[in-house]
C-alpha cells in the first residue's frame, strides 16, 4: 500500500504570517507553486495561503498588496500524516474540494501532496478523476451530491 510519504514533495517552501502578499506572490512565482504553508516562529503550521487567496480575498476586494499573509490565509488547513494511505489523502482532497494537502508530523510541515503527486502513483492515479471532479464543482453542486 502506497503511503503519503512515498509520493509527497519533501522540499516545502513556506511563508511567515507577517510576510506581505507581494513577498508571497514573488516566492510563489520564483518556485512555480500556487500554495505555501504558513508556519510560526516555532515551526508549527498556522495555515495555508494560495494564489487564489491572494486574488479572491485581497485583490478582488481592492485591498492593499501590502496586506500580511495572516490577513488572507486559511487557518487550520486540512492536513494529512505522512504515514496515511495515499487513497485516504485522495479522499480528503475530494471531500474538502482541495488540490493540495499539507503533510504534517507532530505539528510540523514535512511535505506537500498535490493532485499531480497522485497521478504519479498507481494507487492514487485511480482516484484522480474523482478528486478533480470534486475540486471543480461549485460549493452548491458539491453539497447537493454529498447530502
UniProtKB/TrEMBL annotation:
Record Pfam families: CBS
SUPFAM superfamilies: CBS-domain pair
Presence of keyword Metal-binding: no
Residue span, CBS domain: 8-65, 73-130
Keywords, ordered alphabetically: CBS domain
Alphabetical list of InterPro entries matching this protein: CBS_dom (IPR000644), CBS_dom_sf (IPR046342), Diverse_CBS-Domain (IPR051257)
Gene3D superfamilies: CBS-domain
Name of the protein in question: CBS domain protein
Biological source species: Brockia lithotrophica
Amino acid at each position: 500500500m502506497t503511503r503519503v510519504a512515498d509520493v509527497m514533495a519533501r522540499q516545502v517552501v513556506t511563508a511567515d504570517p507577517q510576510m506581505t502578499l507581494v513577498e508571497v506572490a514573488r516566492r510563489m512565482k520564483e518556485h512555480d507553486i500556487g500554495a505555501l504553508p504558513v508556519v510560526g516562529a516555532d515551526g508549527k503550521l498556522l495555515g495555508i495561503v494560495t494564489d487564489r487567496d491572494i486574488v479572491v480575498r485581497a485583490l478582488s476586494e481592492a485591498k492593499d498588496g501590502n496586506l500580511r499573509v495572516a490577513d488572507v490565509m486559511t487557518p487550520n488547513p486540512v492536513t494529512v500524516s505522512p504515514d496515511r494511505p495515499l487513497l485516504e489523502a485522495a479522499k480528503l482532497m475530494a471531500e474538502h474540494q482541495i488540490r493540495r494537502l499539507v503533510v504534517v508530523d507532530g505539528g510540523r510541515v514535512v511535505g506537500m501532496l498535490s493532485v499531480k503527486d497522485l497521478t504519479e502513483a498507481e494507487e492514487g492515479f485511480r482516484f484522480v478523476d474523482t478528486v478533480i471532479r470534486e475540486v471543480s464543482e461549485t460549493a452548491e453542486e458539491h453539497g447537493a451530491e454529498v447530502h
